[in-house]
# Entry
Amino acid sequence: MAIKVIEHGTSAYHEMVALRMEILRKPLGLTFSTDELDKEKKDLLIGAYEEDTLLACCILTPLSRNSYKLRQMAVHQKMQRLGIGAAMMHFAENVARDAGFNSIIINARKTAIGFYEKMGYAIHRNEFIEVGLPHVEMQKKLI
Ligand SMILES: CC(C)(COP(=O)(O)OP(=O)(O)OC[C@H]1O[C@@H](n2cnc3c(N)ncnc32)[C@H](O)[C@@H]1OP(=O)(O)O)[C@@H](O)C(=O)NCCC(=O)NCCS
# Structure
């Protein structure tokens, strides 16, 4: 498996948006607005590949000089629970650390809290609703 940075607007980016649609939005009856996708030009877009096939993706959005928000974490349905999400989190954390960021914040779906806890994240803000689903804010300090 190879984990790489994806460039906004490329065919790899459109493939990433399609995976996010399938895993994160379609099940909720939602899509992405053009504005939402345009704003991703300033983000760090990450994809995990086997050969040329995209297996998983996530996004790092800068929140401040020290802090990134990790969002849009999605692993292909058939490839979940095989360690791909964990590998991608480690890649994203290393990129963030190398860029001088010292914390990552995640708006985690309640169903994914156990995954992020295993990755060393702790609940930072209690339940709120996003995209119609209960979420909690989780944080990890990078050292
Ligand atoms: C949640 C998700 C990103 C995890 O990625 P993954 O590749 O399936 O997870 P991994 O195989 O790397 O799991 C790492 C560890 O977390 C555990 N884990 C994975 N998903 C979990 C979950 N939903 N709840 C509790 N634990 C979970 C695994 O069992 C594994 O534990 P282990 O190290 O003791 O074996 C992925 O399943 C996914 O895309 N789910 C649907 C979309 C989603 O919910 N995205 C997150 C939005 S906030």
